[in-house]
Amino acid sequence: MNLVTIAIKSIKQRILSSSLTALSVALGVMLMVAVLIINGVVSDLFSQPSFGFNLVVGPKGSDLSLALSAIYRLDRPGEPLPYLFYKELKEHRAVEKAVPIAIGDVTEQGGFPIVGTIPEFFDLDYAYNKPFRVCVPGTFLKTPWDAVIGSRVAATNGWNIGSEFKLIHGGAESDHIHDEKFRVVGVLAPTGTPNDRSVFVSLAGFWAISGHEKPLKEAIDRLEKFRYPVPQSLRDKAAKPNKAHDAHAGHDHDHELLDEQKEVTAIFVRTKSTVAEIALAGEINEDVRAMAVNPIFPMKRLMTMIVDNIKLMLLTLTSLIIVISAVSIFVSIYNSMSDRRREIGIMRALGARRETVFTIILAESALLCLGGGVIGLLLGHGLVAVASPVIEARSGILVNPLSFEPLELVLFPVLLVVGSLIGFLPGLAAYRTDVAAALSE
Fold first, then answer.
1. How many degrees, rounded to 5, is the angle at CA 398 between CA 396 and CA 63?
2. pLDDT single digits (tens) 311-354
3. Residue partners of 332: CB distance under 8 A and separation at least 6
4. One domain for residues 219 and 323
């Protein structure tokens, strides 16, 4: 019988106290594993080394808010830009590709964010060297009422090619449902990004929806603010009494939206070079009309200032929990030594050396820590599995409970060292046990 087997039998003799002490370690490890997994997912999501574009162009304001709303769909977008600004920007000498998006509405079923865009959107990689793929073959927004959906949207709503849906105007809290219907023509393969829970519709169809056009008078004010010439015919049209036309009750209306009334929320820009990126960003940011942001920088700032500090705080708290659990193991084993003096004396009388007894106590302590660590690892992933739907519903962040962080492996050598340290003093007490005195008790 080896020493580990003896240590296991000794633990079984005190199964209740041993289980409680191991459980205390398991709870600490569970919380630490959950923190590591969730932080890893958030870090991967917000720490992309690059995208398929260099710049996000949007309204003046917060660069972080622009990145969160346009790329991650976690914030409300700012005041839209005129479509004419996009037409001007895409002809700029520094621009290789410019893709507009329009966001704000959500799906009637599931409340997934709507992204109005053009087919070229899918030519941009969603992450570094990762192009979009389709898991259900289809086309990319060839007609105004086409839609391409993310994998999570398809799974949650049970949608596939041919499914039709309506939009809720202005967000999930609104009760205004548009009459127009879009039809699913493609389903994207999973990406592990907010694109999985987004619905991409044709920008032409998005503009054609009732209420998405800019009123003429407001459009003229916006054009003047952006220093665009306003045709006299447009001013005359705006001055005429507003004749109510039929609401867009279907797809068969012949209402033609003027370019001056069209708006975009943001523009993804891929420049021809890094030098061109810097020059274009400087040119746009010096102007009062819009703002250009490389999304990598505000997201790094978010990680450094907020996410990393929260991670450090949570890991510190969970580490303290594990330390407290280790102290409880120490107290449990040390207090049990007075009850085990006779047992130790018998072992010594049967030929066990001092070193053997000492090693058995160390093995008990290490096994309790490692056993609690294994249970905590499983409980941690289970906790993430339970919490992931809530996290997704509240923040839109997709958390995979099967995600594995390398730091999880470091826990076990640490627990082994901790177990050896807390077992040292009880082991030393066993080492010094007087055989005659122990047997006489």
1. 50
2. 788 788 878 877 887 787 777 776 766 666 666 666 666 666 77
3. 17, 18, 20, 21
4. no
CB 206 within 8 A of CB 213: no
Residue 367's Cβ-side half-sphere holds a number of Cα atoms within 13 Å equal to 20
CA distance to 326, 330, 404, per residue, from 12 (Å): 19, 17, 32
111 and 136 in a common domain: yes
CA dihedral defined by 353, 359, 365, 369, rounded to 10 degrees? -160
CA distance 13 to 328: 18
Give the integer Cα–Cα distance in Å for 124 and 268: 9
Give the pLDDT score at 407. Answer: 79
The last residue of a domain, from among 254, 271, 294: 294
CA distance 127 to 298: 16
Q: Which residues pair with 123 in a beta bridge?
A: none
- Whole-model pTM? 0.72
- Whole-angstrom distance, CA of residue 249 vs CA of residue 241: 23
CB 105 within 8 A of CB 170: yes
Q: What Rg, from alpha-carbon coordinates, does the chain have?
A: 32
Residues 21 and 415: beta-carbon distance below 8 Å: no
Residues 404, 425, single domain; the answer is yes
Instruction: Check if the beta carbon of residue 255 is closer than 8 Å to that of residue 48.
Output: no
Contact criterion met (CB below 8 Å) for 271 and 54: yes
